[in-house]
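Give me structure tokens for this 944-residue protein.
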Amino acid sequence: MKKWILAAAISAALSACANAPTNVALPQGVSLIENVALAESGVGIPYKKYQLANGLTVILHQDHSDPLVHVDVTYHVGSARELPGRSGFAHLFEHMMFQGSEHVGDEQHFKTVTEAGGNLNGTTNTDRTNYFETVPSNQLEKMLWLESDRMGYFLPALTDNKFEVQRETVKNERAQRIDNQPYGRMNERFNQAFYPSGHQYSWPVIGWPEDLNRAQLDDVKHFFQRWYGPNNATITIGGDFDEMQTLAWVNKYFGEIPRGPEVKPEAKTLVTLDKTRYISMEDRVHLPLLRMAFPTVYASHEDEAALDLLANIIGGGPTSLVYKNLVKDGYAVQAGVSHPCQELACQFSIYALANPARGGQLADVEQRIRESIAEFEQRGVTDDDLQKVKVQFEASTIFGLQSVKGKVSTLALNQTFFGNPDMIAHDLKRYANVTKEDVMRVFNTYIKGKPSVVMSVVPQGQKQLIAHQDNFVPPAPRVAAEAVTGMVDVAKAGSSFDRSVMPSAQQAPVITAPSLWTDKLSNGIEVMGTESDETPTVELLIYLNGGHRLADVKQAGLAGLTAAMLNESSEQRSTEELAQALEMLGSSVSFGSSIYQSYIKVSALTSHLDETLAIVEEKLFHPGFKESDFSRVQQQHLQSLQHMQSDPNYVADSQFDALLYGKDTALGVSDMGTPETVSQLTLDDVKAFYNKQFRAGNAQIVAVTNLSKAQLMPKLKGLSKWQGEATPMPELAAMPKLDAGTVYILDKPGAAQSVIKIGKRAMAYDATGEFFKSYLMNYPLGGAFNSRINLNLREDKGYTYGARSYFSGGSELGLFEASASVRSDVTAQALSEFAKEISAYQAGGMTDKELSFLRSSISQGQALDYETPYQKAGFMRKIQRYDLAADYTQQQAEIINSVSKDELNQLAKDKLALDKMIVLIVGDRAKIEQEIKALGYRVSNLEL
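Here you go.
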């Protein structure tokens, strides 16, 4: 979450009336704590806060703009509530709580929410665990039934088998997200050195593997009883609902759950270091990384705001000192400074990815960082520094109000950590009152001359690159005698009604697509827009047909490199000056590219749209294309490509495309290019591609704003001078013949997991034809969490953190793919299970129940499709790009409800023939090859 998401608009006044009286009788046992409303011109989040007799805090925020609700249940428990040697419990519970409860069957939580057209998840950090669902508004009661059952009636359904399966799932998650990722183990190693031994933040949220292995079922039960009571929870509901009915439901489903043990706030003792600690680690990476951090304060401390501003000045983007001294000068590919805060501690954190082309010596990088810190002391703080941050607060706050989920998450977080959902005025005051003297004071107090932790992460076998010899070794871990303390007897939850009966849905909401308008600029550029008055913002996207597909395959990466150059200097101003101008407006302008298009993304407060569009025109029509910028950007691009080669998922994606489409086609080569193609590109190539791609004839515009068509179109007049005819797309080279039935292995020695991809070429995108119907057909096989593939490989076997299958289509052709990252030791078994599920589905098709499930899930899920500006923009762009009817989603709804099981099952027979597919596995060849051959597959070895 962005540090500044909670700050208020500088120019807006927030008017709150706390404890406002209500004339409506509340359900028995429910108390109104406060009612916060906004003045007509205010910016913030209106809400009402209630409390049940058992201590559960209830926050309601009504937003009738879309027919959906977002439900968030946050427990004030994270890894900081664990004890030494007993780590990982909070995160393990995040998984366990989806496995059913006394009145909700195994795997039914995901199925129920998905079938209702919703989405769901849970997250754990050091200080809290939350569970959340976004569903059509008629499904709210059902969500409250689900959440209350796992809060009050979870333990009767907890079994040894569920515990063991989820323990394996967590191990798979660790392997995928930590052990098999570049720099994946950096954070946990760093925090061991940064925090005192036994400090709650000194172990990873996901837990140490040996601690997870040590856990017993009773330990887990006691952890739940200690921390998951209603008095340690907040339920926050936002969206389109009836307030009194919702309160009655909350009281019905949660009110009978007994209080848990009392929970006291953790002590907030500032972290200190006696001296600078140096540690290092070798990893399977290309770019050496230096990470440095100073201990500071904790979230909401009076010095937090000034430290945030200090971090922004020293390393917050292209206008910062670290960028100037490391990135601009070519010593680092990336670098930055931030001040992330948690409930108990903050870090003033600095990182830099060293450029191997400049030697990659991390001692040199450290020296330049320290010189940048010293330079700040001489430079001081300017008026623009203060104003820039205040404007960014304003913009980020307003943009943060664009989704119900974002507003609910903000309310829940503030209530959990500060006991007050309404932190906007408080944060406004904190940041608005920061002075130059405050910034210099916190610099002297926490940074200047103070000890830090400095970590070097270097490629394997290159210890000579570390910044300094290690001088710290973490002490041997302690293991607490008990897994949980503070236990008291908790009454068993009873019930005055039959909880085994799932509530029925209310009447389905009417789903309406955004009302669209179309127009053209005087030069013929099509503009499609929709008016949205939820926030005073503009999201403008200029799409240019072409992208990677427009470039010669021998120049792969050129589209991306050209876009990167357009993010640099103009003829009039430097990169830093343009960045400063945008920061002072609270706007962003970003050029980018993808396979079939280049694009310009513009986000601005409506009040600053004119100035922002002037910058767009400056960058678009008058690019600087300076040789110094090109050399730096090309070098950064090359080093990023080398870095990506250490990511097994990137390697798998790019190699699978090469096998399917061939290395002689744009579709078979990554749009990032290769080190060979990018290294050959010149500035003249960029200029030539710019002239071919950035023409008016290639452009279409999409806009989501609170402005009307009549108000917006004159503001786009500056783009009318854009000229140039559309550029024809080069012919796509012939596709290679697939050696179906072959398993290709790309060796990643020592990989903790194997990335498996199974698939073949498939049809191009369509909205209402064979492609769309194939999407429907695949849904029960691998398109939902409770699909056959995922339930088998993740929930039943425990081989993976997640498995799926899908059809993906572009304007020319597409693919079918089934994929997962699995434990290395079960690679062959996982491949067999994939083959079994795909073959069985092709032969027998879906069941009546699966057809009913997909119809319900996909049709009701349309209620969630148009909430945010970028969702609306994506809807319009699809209409533009594929020349669709404005009501194509209604046509899709009719297909969903009318397509027969026989037609979908015939598609399965036609599209899922396993003997026409190839298999790619990126993993440790020495561990997996013989078992795969033993399955009868032909094996072909690939090299990077």
